[in-house]
Automatic annotation (TrEMBL):
The organism of origin for this protein: Flavobacterium orientale
Gene name of the encoded protein: mutY
Keyword DNA damage: yes
This protein's name: Adenine DNA glycosylase
One MF term in the entry's GO annotations: adenine/guanine mispair binding
Keyword Hydrolase: yes
EC number: 3.2.2.31
GO biological process: base-excision repair; mismatch repair
Keywords: 4Fe-4S, DNA damage, DNA repair, Glycosidase, Hydrolase, Iron, Iron-sulfur, Metal-binding
Species lineage: Bacteria, Pseudomonadati, Bacteroidota, Flavobacteriia, Flavobacteriales
Required co-factors: [4Fe-4S] cluster
Similarity-based family: Belongs to the Nth/MutY family.
């Protein structure tokens, strides 16, 4: 019995029941794959169900405002996925009359759809024999076949795609692709897999050579940038506040936030008071500036660690363009700011 047969047999006995696996609808498959990028299934499942409830078809998603889409996405991170999802929905709905491309190569032409997502849609929706290659697949193949190619290198994707193509069951591409991803997610996990119960323990090269923990090889390390954010939570006599939309490219693009002062290090209350008074171009009398809870929130992103402190700025009179917190809560925020608002207002 070959590699693919063992894999598929394991999958049929151990797979999780997930809603997108019971569908060949390319819209549902595409939606699930975009949500599950950089996201665990347990976290992504409620978002998938929520998106389908709000936007049952690609036309519904295309007609939504970006603000609605970002609000539903709130908490998933990597918000460019949501913006690309929305833009691609518009193209499919309005330019392609709701018809998804039906081949791997055509799918690659859509915004936000790379090689992995295109392969997933093409195989799951249209049974095209093209292999998916993601982190799970790298791990399974590198261990079973003892491939020590650095998966962060430029040649890795082509090498592993060729290997996956060689071992996949071309008559059952959807089943094979689901199986190898599920096997990596449930059995051949990154740390301390239980190889004693693995269907491949007799043939796995990494197990025989005691290299399970060292494969796959990844030499390139992510460089982390440290940033320091001071959010100014203005409150007037009506308990109204100010928020604005991040329009610059970078993290949290088009999400909302409180007025921000970014510094090069953690700032004391005295330093922040000086910065606020220096930068206060609102022409309001400030009665008090005090930190909420007097501790910092460390928000970790893939390439950045952001130290955040929220400051209450109490002013006399009414804020021009001030909003109530009931209104503010309806806007899409980075999850760290949303959690702060929920806790304090």
């Amino acid at each position: 019995m070959g590699f693919s047969n063992y894999l598929i047999q394991w999958y049929l006995q151990n797979k999780r029941e997930l809603p997108w696996r019971n569908s060949q609808n390319p819209y549902e498959i595409w939606l699930s794959e975009i949500i599950l990028q950089q996201t665990r299934v347990a976290q992504g499942l409620p978002y998938f169900e929520s998106f389908l409830a709000h936007f049952p078809t690609v036309f519904d998603l295309a007609k939504a405002s970006e603000e609605q889409v970002l609000k539903l996405w709130q908490g998933l991170g990597y918000y460019s996925r949501a913006r690309n999802l929305h833009q691609t929905a518009k193209i499919i709905a309005f330019e392609k009359k709701g018809q998804f491309p039906k081949t791997y190569n055509e799918l690659l032409g859509l915004k936000g759809i790379g090689t992995y997502t295109a392969a997933a849609i093409a195989s799951f929706a249209y049974d095209e024999a093209v292999p998916v290659v993601d982190g799970n697949v790298y791990r399974v193949l590198s261990r079973y076949f003892n491939v020590d190619t650095d998966i962060s290198s430029s040649k890795a994707k082509n090498e592993f795609t060729a290997l996956a193509n060689e071992v996949m069951d071309s008559k059952q591409p959807a089943l094979f692709n689901q199986a190898i991803m599920e096997f990596g997610a449930l059995q051949c996990v990154p740390k301390n897999p239980d190889c004693s119960v693995c269907v491949f323990n007799a043939g796995c090269a990494a197990l025989q050579m005691k290299k399970v923990q060292s494969l796959p090889v990844k030499l390139k390390k992510t460089k982390i940038t440290n940033r320091f954010f001071n959010y100014l939570v203005f409150q007037d006599t009506n308990n109204y506040s100010l928020v604005n939309q991040r329009t610059s490219k970078g993290i949290w693009h088009n999400l909302y936030e409180f007025p921000l002062i970014e510094t090069e290090k953690i700032s004391s209350e005295k330093e922040v008071v000086q910065l606020v008074r220096k930068q206060n171009n609102l022409n309001y009398k400030i009665n008090a500036i005090v930190a909420f809870d007097n501790f910092d929130v460390i928000h970790k992103l893939s390439h950045q660690h952001i130290t955040i402190r929220f400051w209450r700025i109490e002013i006399e009179g009414e804020l021009k363009n001030g909003l109530s917190f009931d209104t503010i809560k309806k806007l899409p925020f980075p999850i760290v700011i949303y959690n702060f608002i929920e806790k304090n207002f």
